[in-house]
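Need carbonic anhydrase's 3D structure for a figure. Predict it.
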Amino acid sequence: MKWGSVVVGKAVFALVVPLAAVGALLAAGAPAAESAPPRQSPIDVTASAIRFDPFAPALDIHYGHSAVDLVYVQKDADCGARGGEETEEGDVAPGSAYVTYAGTRYDLVQFHFHTPSEHTFQGHHDPLEMHLVHRSAAGGVLVVGVPLRIGAPSVVDSVLSGLTPECGTPRHLDDIDLNALLPASHLTARYTGSLTTAPFTEGVLWFLMPEQHVTAATVSGFQHLFTAGNSRGTQPLNGRTVVLHP
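Structure prediction for carbonic anhydrase:
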């Protein structure tokens, strides 16, 4: 399977993201505990970081159809400046899509885009990356990451065909097949990492999928909006592994 440029056995795999645990000081008067190494996202996925586990819990995907509001996420007061943490975000109807992992349900809240890809495979970037952000009832965060490459048209092109300008009115899409946002193969690579924008909260479950395709026009349009890019650089693995799920 083509999934970036990391080769494991006879398969080719890619994209992954990291998490971090924060150390704390002990009570006053006691010696300070050592902080755990940061587990931040995104990361560069290498063959040495990958472990295959055929018995790992599956990520079960239950995506339906939903209206989508495409909004420009603005992080400053300047309607002309493109901040590195700004993006185009698709907000979905509550309950329209969810995943389950290890007995916990995570509802899809929104999906957004970065250029170039935040995760790399053996140092290789893809033109775009889509993050589908899910939350559990207890507040846990699970993100599905999908690299986007130039190829045949997909439903992602329909979403990004008319970008919402900064400080502009959100663009409403009546009906999007959310499952069609994903690649045909739902093979995943899992690891624990963080949000890739402030406050960079750790403890995020990342599931990285094979590539989805978009047209060259879609890539060009998004990159024209974010000429300086809107992705965070890769962060150290700090001993983490990436677990491949069948």
